[in-house]
Amino acid sequence: MSDQAAEHDEPHGGALAARLNWLRAAVLGANDGIVSTAGLVVGVAGATGDRNTLLTAGLAGLLAGSMSMAAGEYVSVSTQRDSEKAALAVERRELREQPEAELAELTDLLADRGLSRQVAREAAQQLTERDALRAHARVELGIDPDDLTNPWHAAWASFVAFTVGALLPLLAIVLPPADWRLGVTVVSVLGALALTGWSSARLGSADVRPAVVRNMGGGALAMAVTYGAGALLGAVGV
Asked: Does the record carry Transcription as a key word (predicted)?
């Protein structure tokens, strides 16, 4: 039994939601950091080979991107948290003003999930007696009132992930000799995107190949477009 339990150890409910929320912010941040900074420095490299110019452009892109990602995550997750709090407030008022109607609603929700009417009624009564708000929050709203989404966690995850991702193309474009910069950057970026795609798929229990192909394909396209634009602008002396 212990072996079977260990094999069936998988996240559920709030733990899974929190893990996926962190994963989404971290993976998006890392991917954006890699792709956007790589596109920026490769585009500039298409126009000029000056190391100081590449470093300045890369650092500016890193700082702007990391702050933008953090601010965006904070705003979006704060809005989600506000919505969750508002929904809990409505549910709290309804439980206070219409307890019987709420008990019937909880019974219907449990019955819709496959329980018999009698069992659903008994379960609803027990859950209501234990903690009515938590029961309705989880069954009706899909919210864990003890574990609401945290905007600061998402913001810091995005900031750190973007910064770490952006450092790779930045260092790859400024550290090698001039003749090696572009090749080292492209190979490093594609390798990093393959790794983030593989990691996101594994952590999310999804198929690895599509995630890797999407990441690498998007990064390669971004670098090709920006390098072409930079080379064209450099050729015309802009």
From this structure: no
The single-letter DSSP state of residue 147 is S
Own/partner long-range contacts of 63-69 (Cβ < 8 Å, ≥24 apart): 65/32, 65/33, 65/36, 65/37, 65/162, 65/166, 66/33, 66/158, 66/159, 66/162, 66/163, 66/166, 67/159, 69/28, 69/29, 69/32, 69/33, 69/158, 69/159, 69/161, 69/162
CA distance 62 to 110: 49
* pLDDT tens column, 15-57: 555 566 666 667 777 888 999 999 999 999 888 888 999 999 9
Task: Write phi, then psi, for 67 (nearest 5 degrees).
Answer: -65, -40
Q: pTM above the 0.90 mark?
A: no
- 126 CB-near residues (< 8 Å, 6+ apart): none
pLDDT of residue 49: 85
Return the residue matching tokens 């994963």: 23
Distance (Å) of CA 214 to CA 29, 120, 233? 16, 44, 29
